[in-house]
Design goal:
mainly beta, 8 domains, 9-stranded mixed sheet
């Protein structure tokens, strides 16, 4: 600024601190944001100096200021650049990569990611920070993880169950053939059924991957960043804007998915229409592959590992789960192999590779890539019924041999039994022991009824029942457990169907049911029918409500669908809330409240809080709650409480209590201006959870607020001046003793002039809050300027002007009226009036009537120098004393006799005479007179009036006329009817 220059020229291109300008401004280290949004130094005069940092929105920064100064604030988010957007998978995990990957035959899958954690590479033989590979591989038949950097691997990997992470079989395992220098720890954490993996190296997070694994063993599909379609899961899109991550939910129930950061429609139910085609003549499949749109559908089939047929023993071997099982000839049934552990051990000419008989069941189905969700808690019929399965087999005995059967079924027309073929195809497990024993006990192939009584040791043929047949046919596990697993998997691929896991990895009880029954089909005991049915029903949430609060904890919006998937939960969207909450349906407990009090960055425990200091309360509850409070006195219920703690349901509530007029902090605290007086402050707090449970009694917090520091200059009680401010003193005084009171302890001085306290030389004598002193009042108007200094050093900067006036004449009672009054009654109501003169002009007058008052009484009405009081006195004579005094100390006392007379006589005429053309009459008292020319009986109102005053009245005189005259005094006394006051004849 030009006015900051002491000398020299003002130059446009120089900073104000340039020495050539000879300005008062000096360089500082303070920084501010300039108008163009850059960081600049400022000088001591607050002029801009050189630029410190160039902030640029397009480059991802803006200028911000805090208590330490200005800086370029990054607009990037913690894990994303400003403007970047991405999809969040339905498991709630953000994928580092995207795409579909599959394990190879050794179950090895490599996913590369750039790890940018400092010093991470130094842990690997001095390797560089950069590309590292996460491997999933087969470790002795169990999925395992490891991290690689080039040819170097971690020494340990976490081995665990894919479907049950954290199970009892999970452990850290040494990896054969790998080496590392030194000792280091790798920890791999996974969540939501392996939808998210975090890798830690020596407790440092070095990798973050998201994926889903399904259909183990076999070809395993991993969708990086998808998180799968667990019950309750949902797609979201997120984007980074100005340093904040914003989340938008795609259609709930997975009616939308997310692609390239956009929510897209998911017509998942259209997939099921492709399952109604005519059976393929070769495969028997009912799926129309053209209708099964690969954009949002896929053909599900029971892909399983190939099987091997043992030609020497007539056995077929297959991997059932993790176990090698075999089936013996036509008898069917699965038994665990005690000789071999894997198909790889079955080689040579003795074994032929064959397909699993489960592939012949025509179970393939067009299902959604991302199955939609169901309101499983409220509907009975659903798309899950597409997963129902029914089959019936008929076993016809070929009479003539015990071991020759033809098995025909709805799905097996034309298939013959024989070595290497399972006629039961996993549906029937014959009890081979019972079956062979039947033949040994007398079953002759030539008999007409192959299942006659001999089969059952003495039973008659007619007694053979269905239960007997079942005993013969059924084994302990009917039907084949591998088939049940496949049907369960197909059921869960359809939608939210029973047995499926929710988005936190928990599965509810499976309500899917199946039945299996064999019976004599034709009543001749030579044909057996075996029927199997499987029912796929909607998902059933886990029991209990312990997981309900998880909904929304990942920062993604909770909904009724997500909530209900977690267990016995209820969903509520409180009025005014911007989101919904999930809670245990059996939650009847109110929140448990704890409070921490902080003032001046110090935790307060039974300490006095300085006045005018904001008080910060951190209120913690054991569940998501909405809190309110009262001050001083508690309301009867939560709804009746007066003040809000916040506007959201939270676990931690930050409340700042403030004084009116204090500036807001604009931070995470919710502010309420409720502080005022010092002393004890009672805060009553209640919190209500999302189930609307609130405590009956409020939690009481008692705080103590210190007295405020004295920053106010002393104040004089203006009504306490003696003599009164702007009042009078007696005219003969030259000095006066003056006094006044203060509102606090202080010392006071006065002066004839308005000047600073330090320049005043006349002291008042002050004791406690009362001050007094002798003042000179020689002038007609005397002004005194008073200033005071309190015990805290606060001094008046403005003077209290104290004015004393002197009266110029003495106070005197000038008149008292009336002194003599007449009345026709026995008493008189009248006003006694006193007029004064001189004095200070603020006199007070009092009266006392001897014999009626024992002390003086102030006149009721005063106006200027006149004082009036109404009296009602009986006829008689009274002595009235009047006493008047003013603020100057003057006074006057006067005594007057007051007579009240009773007058009952009409006025008399003392003289009557003609004067010129007038008749003149004179009365003894003031009166009104009238006449009539004919008699004294005329009505008063009809008589002619005399004119005149002062007891002299006239009327026109007519010679020879009689004047019948009546007169009435001021009291209304008038002659009676027919009586005249006087008759005059001219």
């Amino acid at each position: 600024e030009r006015n900051q220059c002491i000398g020299g020229e003002f130059n446009l291109d120089l900073y104000c601190t340039d020495e050539s300008l000879d300005a008062v401004c000096e360089e500082t280290s303070e920084t501010v944001c300039s108008e163009n949004g850059d960081v600049h130094y400022i000088d001591s005069c607050e002029n801009l100096e050189e630029m410190v940092d160039d902030c640029d929105y397009d480059s991802g920064t803006i200028c911000e200021e805090d208590i330490e100064g200005a800086y370029c604030k990054s607009l990037n988010c913690e894990d994303a650049l400003n403007g970047e957007e991405w999809c969040v998978g339905p498991g709630g995990s953000i994928g580092g990569d995207s795409g579909t990957y599959a394990f190879d035959e050794d179950w090895v899958l490599e996913i590369s990611a750039n790890c940018d954690v400092e010093d991470f590479g130094n842990a690997f033989y001095g390797g560089d920070v950069g590309e590292y590979t996460l491997q999933f591989f087969n470790y002795h038949g169990t999925p395992a993880f490891r991290l690689a950097h080039g040819d170097i691997f971690f020494t340990k990997a976490y081995v665990g169950s894919i479907n049950n992470p954290g199970g009892s079989s999970d452990h850290w395992a040494e990896l054969a053939g790998v080496s590392m220098s030194g000792t280091h720890d790798i920890r791999i954490e996974y969540y939501y059924s392996l939808s998210e993996v975090k890798i830690y190296w020596d407790e440092a997070l070095v990798g973050h991957f998201a994926f889903e694994i399904s259909n183990m063993p076999g070809d395993v599909s991993i969708s990086i960043g998808s998180g799968g379609a667990a019950v309750g899961s949902r797609y979201f899109r997120q984007y980074c804007l100005d340093g904040e991550v914003y989340t938008e939910g795609c259609g709930d129930y997975r009616t939308e998915t997310c692609e390239s950061a956009n929510c897209v429609n998911n017509p998942w139910q259209d997939c099921f229409a492709a399952n109604n085609a005519e059976a393929d003549p070769i495969t028997g499949s009912f799926v129309d592959e053209e209708m099964c749109d690969s954009d949002y559908c896929e053909i599900w089939s029971p892909e399983s590992s190939p099987c091997a047929f043992d030609k020497d023993y007539g056995r077929t071997y297959c991997m059932i789960g993790d176990t090698l099982m075999y089936s013996s000839d036509l008898y069917g049934g699965w038994k665990e192999s005690a000789t071999y552990e894997s198909l790889e051990e079955l080689d040579g000419d003795r074994f032929d590779e064959v397909n699993s008989p489960l592939q012949d069941l025509n179970l393939e189905m067009c299902v959604p890539l991302v199955p939609g969700g169901l309101q499983f808690w409220s509907i009975e019929d659903s798309v899950c019924s597409y997963g129902n399965y029914e089959a019936t087999l008929y076993m016809d005995h070929d009479k003539g041999t015990c071991n020759k059967w033809t098995i025909v079924g709805e799905n097996y027309d034309g298939l013959e039994t024989g070595p290497g073929f399972w006629g039961n195809a996993g549906l029937i497990n014959l009890n081979i022991t019972n079956w062979k024993q039947a033949c040994d006990d007398g079953w002759a192939p030539t008999k007409d009824n192959p299942l006659d009584a001999a089969l059952f040791s003495g039973h008659d043929a007619d007694d053979v029942s269905d239960s007997d047949i079942n005993r013969l046919v059924l084994d302990e596990e009917i039907p084949d457990p591998a088939l049940i697993e496949i049907l369960e998997a197909r059921c869960q691929a359809i939608s939210d169907c029973s047995g499926k896991a929710n988005f936190v990895g928990a599965s509810g009880p499976s309500w899917n049911g199946y039945s299996f029954h064999c019976e004599d089909e034709d009543g001749r005991n030579d044909q057996i029918s075996c029927s199997f049915s499987f029912e796929c029903v909607p998902y059933n949430a886990p029991s209990g409500g312990s997981s309900c609060s998880v909904c929304g904890e990942d920062g993604l919006t909770c909904s009724e669908y997500r909530c209900k998937a977690l267990g016995d939960c209820e969903y509520n969207e409180p009025v005014g809330a911007d989101k919904g909450y999930c809670y245990d349906e059996d939650d009847y407990d109110s929140p448990v409240i704890s409070v921490e009090v902080v003032a001046n960055d110090t935790i307060i425990i039974n300490e006095e809080i300085p006045y005018n200091t904001p008080i910060e309360l951190t209120i913690t509850t054991d569940e998501a709650s909405f809190c309110k409070f009262d001050v001083g006195e508690s309301s009867n219920s939560f709804d009746d409480m007066n003040y809000y703690v916040g506007e959201e349901f939270e676990w931690e509530h930050k409340l700042r209590l403030m004084y009116s007029g204090q500036e807001s902090y604009d931070d995470e605290f919710y502010e309420q201006s409720v502080l005022g007086e010092s002393g004890e402050l009672e805060i009553y707090i209640r919190c209500e959870d999302v189930a609307e449970n609130a405590p009956v009694s409020a939690k009481l917090i008692v705080l103590t607020i210190a007295e405020p520091p004295d920053k106010l200059a002393p104040q004089i009680d203006e009504d306490s001046f003696i003599p009164a401010n702007d009042g009078y003193v007696a005219m003969n005084l030259t000095t006066v003793e003056a006094s006044f009171y203060l509102l606090e302890d202080a010392e006071c001085r006065w002066s004839d002039e308005d000047e600073d306290y330090s320049l005043m030389t006349n002291d008042f004598l002050c004791f406690s809050q009362e001050c007094s002193g002798v003042l000179n009042v020689s002038l007609e108007t005397n002004k005194f300027y008073i200033r005071c200094n309190d015990t805290s050093g606060n001094v008046n900067t403005a003077s209290e002007v104290y004015t004393i006036k002197k009266a110029q004449t003495e106070l005197a009672i000038e008149s008292i009226s009336p002194n003599d009054e007449d009345t026709t009654d026995d008493h008189l109501v009248f006003d006694l009036e006193v007029v004064v003169d001189g004095g200070a002009g603020d006199e007070i007058c009092e009266y006392m009537i001897e014999g009626q008052h024992e002390e003086y009484i102030e006149f009721l009405e005063s106006s200027g120098d006149t004082h009036t009081q109404e009296f009602d006195l009986a006829i008689g004579e009274y002595t009235v004393k009047i006493y008047c005094y003013d603020s100057a100390g003057d006074s006057d006392l006067e005594t007057q006799t007051l007579r009240i007379n009773q007058d009952l006589n009409s006025p008399s005429i003392t003289r009557a005479y003609a004067q010129g053309s007038s008749l003149v009459i004179r009365t003894k008292e003031e009166a009104e007179c009238r006449y009539y020319s004919y008699s004294c009986s005329e009505d008063w109102d009809d008589m002619t009036s005399f004119s005149g005053s002062d007891k002299r009245y006239t009327v026109t005189a007519y010679e020879g006329r009689k004047y019948y005259i009546k007169c009435m005094d001021e009291l209304g006394n008038i002659p009676g009817d027919g009586v005249c006051t006087k008759i005059v004849r001219l």
